[in-house]
Specification:
- The complex is a heterodimer of chains A (about 180) and B (about 375).
- Chain A has about 180 residues and is mainly alpha-helical.
- Helix content of chain A is about 80%, strand content about 0%.
- Chain A has helices at about 5-10, 15-20, 25-65, 70-90, 105-120, 120-140, 145-165, 165-170.
- In chain A, α2 packs across α3 and α4 packs parallel to α7.
- Chain A is elongated.
- Chain B is α+β, with helices and mostly antiparallel strands and about 375 residues long.
- In chain B, about 35% of the residues lie in helices and about 25% in strands.
- Chain B is built from 9 helices and 17 strands.
- A 4-stranded antiparallel beta sheet of chain B has the order 2-7-4-5, covered by helices on one side.
- The chains are: A mainly alpha (about 180), B alpha+beta (about 375).
- At the A-B interface, α3 and α4 of A face β5, β6, α3 and α5 of B.
């Protein structure tokens, strides 16, 4: 997996390079780059979640063809949940602290934030596996397994959300 | 305003009323302070990016490139100025009301197609500022609570209709709605989570839910419950109602036709007996009227031969006494009307006789003297 932080640093334009050598601007520039790298990573995470959501929407298409299925409502709710989590990931806090904040967010914390977000990719892999399983169950008209897979996906996206909501507390070291 | 141009901002109460969010109308400078109160959240945007969601009450000194000297030099040289802004959000709960614009057609087992309307109140608050400010407010450009509520209202009505449909499929009828309002509230509340979390809104509470039935259906529900309480069928109930109306309204109806108040009351009382009988078909109810008539034993009048019910004492046609004394047949013990000479069952002579020893004439056993020769028997 490429490290977006390195790429952002390598591709600094002339203005950013000038800012990096001006006293007082260096820290600002460095933090801003780290935040941007994390934002790019999160946008990819959100895109990947969106991809999984589209998989669920395909499943919904299969269910709609057969009509009257009791799973369709659960699946609809799950799609809404995916949209919500996508929003949370896309617009999450970027790791900022103003002047004289109670807890300062420094460069190493922003690095940890990036790594925390990068680790969230593993969750998406497991979600993708569950959605594949759901597709197979629906194709086979296996109601019992379909329901099981739906509950599995729900549990995984909830776990993803719970883990993601912990990120600021974890990187600040304030989680109790 | 200080020497370096920084200032301290708060969400003024005058801007707060009925507003769920408020955008500070000023570009944030270096070291500008914002005050976040207990019932507020602040979102700090810099260059269009939401850097922080500040939900702890405090005074925060924010950073931007709009510093006193550096910022001015950069702006002078390049014409570029960093955009930094603050958006406040209210944390407190808001109350809203909803009502259906169009009726919902509920297919009921007992009453057929019934038009329902729903009304109620809800409480909501911002649960996820990330989604609310970027996906809800940002998309729809809402700032006042009224605008946000408008959006929620329509969705709430749809969710209630949807929930009613599901509960109907599980056996709930129109007449059960009133007793299930709390259940309906809970079902709807559960469903709101998925629908509104998406926008960063949580529906905190649903209250005062009222689902109105059309007047005629409400009347029918009331009638049915009254009938159940009285144990009467529809005809009995309606007749009783008509009698009561006639009694209380002497100027109209049957009373006006000459029946009079007293007669009305009397007829009403006579109906009470009928209504207190178990309704037809109910356990313990007598058989239908025609079968009952056929089952009553009939007795022929000994004088005119008219058929009369067995429990009549006198003939309905000629007034003759119907009750006939019987005596048991000395042989087969069958009850034979008094005066009959031979038993209709076995042919045995019903009157015991004794033969006169002198002349040989038979006389009744009760006779003391012979009817032929007059000798003592």
């Amino acid at each position: 997996m490429p490290d977006i932080r390195e790429r952002v640093e390598e591709d600094q334009g002339i203005l950013k390079k000038i800012q990096s050598v001006i006293p007082g601007f260096r820290g600002y520039r460095k933090k801003e780059d780290l935040r941007d790298a994390d934002r790019m990573l999160r946008m990819q995470l959100a895109d990947k979640l969106g991809l999984q959501r589209r998989g669920l929407e395909e499943c919904r298409g299969v269910l709609v063809q057969s009509y009257g299925s009791k799973e369709i409502e659960t699946l609809g709710g799950l799609i809404f949940t995916f949209k919500k989590v996508e929003g949370l990931v896309t617009h999450a806090e970027m790791g900022y602290s103003g002047i004289a904040a109670d807890i300062q967010i420094k460069e190493d914390e922003l690095d940890r934030l990036y790594e925390f977000d990068a680790a969230m990719l593993d969750h998406i892999t497991s979600i993708a596996a569950s959605i594949d399983s759901l597709k197979n169950s629906l194709m086979a008209a296996d109601e019992q397994n379909s329901y099981k897979d739906l509950m599995n996906i729900k549990a995984r996206i909830t776990a993803f959300e719970d883990q993601f909501n912990r990120r600021m507390n974890v990187i600040q070291g304030t989680e109790v | 305003m200080s020497l370096i141009g920084a200032d301290t901002f708060k969400w003024e109460d005058i801007d707060k009323r009925q507003n769920i969010m408020y955008r500070m109308p000023r570009n944030i400078k270096f070291n500008d302070n914002i005050v976040v109160r207990e019932d507020e959240m602040a979102v700090f945007f810099r260059d269009g990016k939401a850097l922080a969601y500040i939900d702890r009450p405090d005074r925060y000194a924010l950073t931007s490139l709009n510093a006193p000297i550096v910022g001015k030099i950069v702006k002078f040289l390049s014409g570029v100025q960093q955009q930094a802004e603050v958006v406040y959000l209210q944390k407190r709960v808001f109350d809203g009301k909803f009502g259906s614009k169009q009726a919902y057609q509920f297919r009921d087992k007992e009453f057929g197609m019934v038009n329902l309307r729903v009304f109620g109140e809800f409480r909501y608050k911002i649960a996820a500022p990330e989604n609310f400010v970027n996906q809800f407010v940002g998309t729809f450009n809402f700032a006042t609570s009224a605008e946000v509520e408008d959006r929620i209202k329509e969705q709430m009505v749809i969710l209630i209709y949807d929930s009613l449909g599901d509960m109907k499929n599980q056996g709930m009828g129109v007449a059960d709605i009133a007793s299930n309002l709390t259940n309906i509230e809970q079902v709807v509340l559960t469903r709101t989570k998925e629908h509104f979390d998406l926008y960063g809104i949580t529906i905190d509470k649903l209250s005062g839910l009222y689902i109105s039935l059309p007047e005629e259906v409400q009347k029918a529900v009331d009638t049915k419950s009254s009938m159940t309480i009285l144990g009467a069928n529809y005809m009995q109930y309606q007749t009783g109602q008509a009698m009561r109306d006639a009694a209380v309204n002497p100027a109209g109806g049957a009373a006006a036709a000459g029946v009079g108040v007293g007669a009305g009351i009397g007829m009403g009382w006579s109906m009470v007996g009928a209504m207190t009988q178990p309704p037809a078909g109910a356990p313990g109810a007598p058989a239908a009227q025609p079968a009952q008539v056929a089952a009553v034993p009939q007795v022929a009048c000994p004088k005119c031969g008219t058929q009369n019910p067995a429990n009549n004492k006198f003939c309905a046609s000629c007034g003759a006494k119907l009750s006939v004394a019987t005596v048991p047949c000395p042989k087969c013990k069958a009850e034979v009307p008094e005066g009959t000479k031979f038993c209709p069952e076995c042919g045995t002579a019903m009157v015991a006789t004794k033969k006169c020893a002198a002349c040989g004439v038979e006389s009744p056993a009760t006779s003391k003297f012979c009817a032929g020769c007059g000798k003592a028997l």
